[in-house]
Amino acid sequence: MSLKLVETAPYEGQKPGTSGLRKRVSVFQQPNYLENFVQSVFDTVEGFTGKTLVLGGDGRFHNDVAIQTILKMAAANGVGKVMVGYNGILSTPACSCVIRKHKTFGGIVLSASHNPGGPQGDFGIKFNIANGGPAPEKVTDAIYAKSQALKSYRIIDAADVDLSALGTTKIGDMVVEVFDPVADYADQMASIFDFDAIRALFAKGFTLRFDAMHAVCGPYAKRIIEGMLGAPEGTVIHAEPLPDFGGHHPDPNPVNAKDLLDFMASPDATDMAAATDGDGDRNMIVGKGFAVSPSDSLAILTANAFLVPGYAGGVKGVARSMPTSAAVDRVADILGIPHYETPTGWKFFGNLLDDGRITFCGEESYGTSSLHIREKDGIWAILFWLNLLAKTGDSVGGLVEKHWQRFGRNYYSRHDYESVDSARANALMDHLRSQLDSLAGRSFGAFIVEKADEFTYHDPVDGSVSEHQGIRIFFTDGSRIIFRLSGTGTVGATLRVYFDHYDAKKLDLAPQAALADLIAIATEVARLPEFTGMTEPTVVT
Ligand code: G1P
Ligand code: ZN
């Protein structure tokens, strides 16, 4: 076993985006590509010599190869111990849970989240810090800077570790512990939710269909929902993690989980359905015939938190990403608790959680979580809904309707224009920027622009400033249109356009119809067909 210093040269573009470094598998397979990034992480992070690192991924293609490389590099860089998930499996929320519980200096998750997998798909790597959350921008910027000046990386020449055997072994002086990736996480869930009540619900014949989309959540959902909570076998479908996710797109939304939506609109529908994404941090909740809007889900969980033992002590505050609908703000105002608006990306919630300012946070992109970890958490959200259904005896649809009756409804939708030429997408954003000063006061039919700006976030905890976080058009009736470019795509640019419109009385419109005027305004103001080359968005959620 020998330590090697391998000469290398920088790769362009190793800049982590909204959530880690994501590229095509073929990009990661280039010589030294992964090694360069991993060395840049070790060169940036301080004080880890002799300490513990958590490691695992969502089981996608290249996961196993990358894990072996990272283990050997960790040993060469002086890490004391690596806890690696059995078979290389570790969900993003479980990684956060394990980092916090075992007080490790950080963790590495190998995932491209909801992006497709397989040899032609995407791969990704994300570094989480000691609080269990994604590295903040100052850390990811420093990692990027190191990657651009890298000359060599350190690795130990050693045999691969058998990831299919629980227990400990060594690479050089470093201990490798292959651990059960479900156990700590399942314990934490049992400590938050009323498992007795949920068990009783299933015992009464309540039915659930949980679609793990052949991604990381299968083993978690099997153990927790079918095992600990007694749901019948077969409740969890597509439970086996596969390197290509069975050819599916593991993104739990009504477009990519259409089969689940169709099933829930059929006479065979279960009482509730749910799905999670590649790495287990996203969730979709489905009632009979409809999917719950993630923005509504955050609001409903907040309004009903007193029914969950782990939150019976009260809710300190809530945060949502800027493009997420303002539904939760209304709940916060009535509960008399603060609400915060952050840029897109989970990392911006970290300071608010660490500072004890918020209990819940969420994004419109099917992400919700709480202070229990520092990532969004798919299974947590699903268990939360089960807990509410068990305590109220209501249905998914019943809970949503009662919520709207009490708080009013935020009609909400996101339109994505994918694979737009990057230069055209930037030109579109510049075109919008050029109108920011002249939009206020303009009317479009019944809608009058109150103001337009580009969102800059001032973190109230550490004072850091994040600019260019989306262009916003506010209307005098409280409606909003938001434009931003995705930070997670791997091909060209993805333009996201978000629509949010509140109605206190009309509660049963179809969202696209309720938002039709705003959609037409966005098309006109941004000259969408001209800049995107498309007459319709590629994905509507
Ligand atoms: C997308 C979502 C964002 C989420 C991120 C990681 O980022 O919009 O809410 O935090 O994925 O799951 P985007 O591609 O918009 O930058
Ligand atoms: Zn994810």
Give a verbal description of the structure.
It is a single chain. This protein is of the alpha/beta class. It has 3 domains: 2-181, Alpha-D-Glucose-1,6-Bisphosphate, Chain A, domain 3; 185-407, Alpha-D-Glucose-1,6-Bisphosphate, subunit A, domain 3 (Alpha-D-Glucose-1,6-Bisphosphate, Chain A, domain 3); 409-540, 2-Layer Sandwich (TATA-Binding Protein), CATH 3.30.310. The protein has 18 helices and 27 strands. The chain has a 7-stranded mixed sheet with strand order 2-6-5-3-4-9-8, sandwiched between helices. The longest helix is centred in the C-terminal third of the chain and has 15 residues, at 378-392. It is globular and about 75 Å long.
Task: Give the gist of this structure.
The protein is an alpha/beta fold and 541 residues long. The chain has 3 domains: 2-181, Alpha-D-Glucose-1,6-Bisphosphate, Chain A, domain 3 (3-Layer(aba) Sandwich); 185-407, 3-Layer(aba) Sandwich (Alpha-D-Glucose-1,6-Bisphosphate, Chain A, domain 3); 409-540, TATA-Binding Protein (2-Layer Sandwich).
